[in-house]
Amino acid sequence: MAEGDAGSDQRQNEEIEAMAAIYGEEWCVIDDCAKIFCIRISDDIDDPKWTLCLQVMLPNEYPGTAPPIYQLNAPWLKGQERADLSNSLEEIYIQNIGESILYLWVEKIRDVLIQKSQMTEPGPDVKKKTEEEDVECEDDLILACQPETPAKALDFDISENRTEIEELPPIDHGIPITDRRSTFQAHLAPVVCPKQVKMVLAKLYENKKIASATHNIYAYRIYCEDKQTFLQDCEDDGETAAGGRLLHLMEILNVRNVMVVVSRWYGGILLGPDRFKHINNCARNILVERNYTNSPEESSKALGKNKKVRKDKKRSEH
């Protein structure tokens, strides 16, 4: 590794640790390998009126010679308002070239939200029509753009020959990851309709070890050719926000017609944010192994194209 790259890597790690320490659970690791992170920012912690998710990917050259690649996610952020905020972030980068700027970006966004809160009415209902159809998937870290009638997504007809596509698909199992007595293992199956998702889950639960897991987190994405949209859903099974994060990873990787289940056997020691890293790494590894995504580099490029976010119910880790 070149000396410059080593220096950038160290500075990135120090900044990531600082952000996690400052913002706690608001700071979310989406993909540790690709250095993709997000943070939910609001105008007020106790009674938020306006909320925005800042998603960033740190290129190897950051902070030395390149800015973070970023995306602003909020259903209300459009037009000139989006352009003004983007210009403000880019101005901060220009004024601080070579320096770590994530904290400055977050606090600038928070200032904008506070000013907006003082000048306007509370934020709009976020349940608006989106480019992708979602089915009751929530993520506590990222504000969701939900379809007005998500249940209708279940009516999508993926193929004329439904008998054929509703056969039980093959299921692959990934290599387990163990950390402090907690074990994580991913399971993958190709799916083209929601019924297959249920069949895969039922088959997995026939395995006593999987059925006895503390959590079986899953997410799936099915591409509907006729609608040119995605049918997708997720479940965290009691593991705080894990389902939404897993689905978000799959969106970033731009995978389709596949479901991933990650089983966690809790070992009695709280892992904190590390549990999300292990869940996503398990999922990412098996998706790469089964050729659903080509490389970490190509996966990272999809970040700028991804426009979907989720909203998960908060539950404690165990």
TrEMBL record:
Spans annotated as Disordered: 294-318
Keyword annotations of the record: Cytoplasm, Differentiation, Neurogenesis, Repressor, Stress response, Translation regulation
Domain of life: Eukaryota
Classification via InterPro entries: Impact, Impact_N, Impact_N_sf, Ribosomal_Su5_D2-typ_SF, RWD_dom, UBQ-conjugating_enzyme/RWD, UPF0029_Impact_CS
One GO BP annotation of this record: regulation of translational initiation
Gene3D superfamilies hit by this protein: Impact, N-terminal domain (3.30.230.30), Ubiquitin Conjugating Enzyme (3.10.110.10)
Location (main, coarse): cytoplasm
GO CC term, one of those recorded: cytoplasm
Compositionally biased tracts (Basic residues): 304-318
The keyword Amino-acid biosynthesis belongs to this UniProt entry's keyword annotation: no
Xref: Pfam families: Impact_N, RWD
Compartments, as annotated in UniProt: Cytoplasm
Family named by the database record: Belongs to the IMPACT family.
Known partners and oligomeric status: Interacts with GCN1; prevents the interaction of GCN1 with EIF2AK4/GCN2 and inhibits EIF2AK4/GCN2 kinase activity. Interaction with RPL39; this interaction occurs in a GCN1-independent manner. Associates with ribosomes; this interaction occurs in a GCN1-independent manner. Associates with actin; this interaction occurs in a GCN1-independent manner.
Physiological role: Translational regulator that ensures constant high levels of translation upon a variety of stress conditions, such as amino acid starvation, UV-C irradiation, proteasome inhibitor treatment and glucose deprivation. Plays a role as a negative regulator of the EIF2AK4/GCN2 kinase activity; impairs GCN1-mediated EIF2AK4/GCN2 activation, and hence EIF2AK4/GCN2-mediated eIF-2-alpha phosphorylation and subsequent down-regulation of protein synthesis.
The name this protein goes by in its record: Protein IMPACT
Species name: Odobenus rosmarus divergens (Pacific walrus)
